[in-house]
């Protein structure tokens, strides 16, 4: 939907009980800001955890030396797995707000709320009602061939791979 191949891989840990988000924040300030942002979205039923062993780098400032437009808080640089999310240290937003903006864009959250995170990261339960059922299949099928809701493997495409994951999660009543 927004940019083809995603900046970070979403790994759902087994079921909708937890979601591991891969991202490599560079430095303790960014790591704390990311952890704080994920804590804001986490719920007891769906904790969001930062995994720093992969995904794009999250940097404060330009790692390429290219100056920022002063009005830009966050930008994405690179291709595929080599992508970076760069936060403008002199930008219009505070660090915590810029990190939330970057994560919302990266993980395609409709809003910065635990409800939006639960809907986005709850696995094959696409409507977030606590059950993987035909309503979820209808949501997946309505996005087949595109992107968005129904992208169960985090590759920003709703395709046969997502149908296979859905089939594995679906239980006949």
Automatic annotation (TrEMBL):
InterPro entries: Dockerin_dom_sf, EF_Hand_1_Ca_BS, EF_hand_dom. Residues 112-147 form the EF-hand domain. Residues 1-18 form the signal peptide. The keyword Iron-sulfur does not apply. PROSITE patterns: EF_HAND_1, EF_HAND_2. Keywords: Signal. GO terms for molecular function: calcium ion binding. GO terms for biological process: polysaccharide catabolic process. This is EF-hand domain-containing protein. It comes from Deinococcus proteolyticus (strain ATCC 35074 / DSM 20540 / JCM 6276 / NBRC 101906 / NCIMB 13154 / VKM Ac-1939 / CCM 2703 / MRP).
């Amino acid at each position: 939907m927004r940019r083809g191949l995603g900046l970070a891989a979403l790994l759902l840990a087994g079921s909708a009980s937890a979601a591991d988000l891969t991202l490599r924040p560079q430095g303790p300030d960014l790591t704390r800001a990311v952890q704080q942002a994920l804590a804001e979205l986490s719920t007891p039923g769906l904790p969001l955890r930062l995994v720093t062993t992969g995904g794009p780098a999250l940097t404060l400032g330009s790692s390429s030396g290219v100056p920022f437009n002063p009005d830009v808080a966050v930008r994405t640089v690179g291709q595929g797995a080599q992508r970076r999310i760069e936060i403008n240290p002199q930008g219009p937003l505070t660090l915590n707000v810029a990190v939330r903006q970057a994560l919302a864009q990266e993980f395609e959250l409709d809003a910065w709320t635990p409800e939006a995170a639960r809907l986005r990261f709850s696995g094959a339960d696409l409507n977030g009602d606590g059950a993987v059922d035909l309503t979820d299949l209808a949501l997946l099928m309505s996005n087949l061939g595109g992107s968005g809701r129904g992208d169960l493997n985090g590759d920003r495409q709703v395709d046969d791979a997502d149908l296979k994951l859905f089939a594995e999660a679906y239980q006949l009543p």
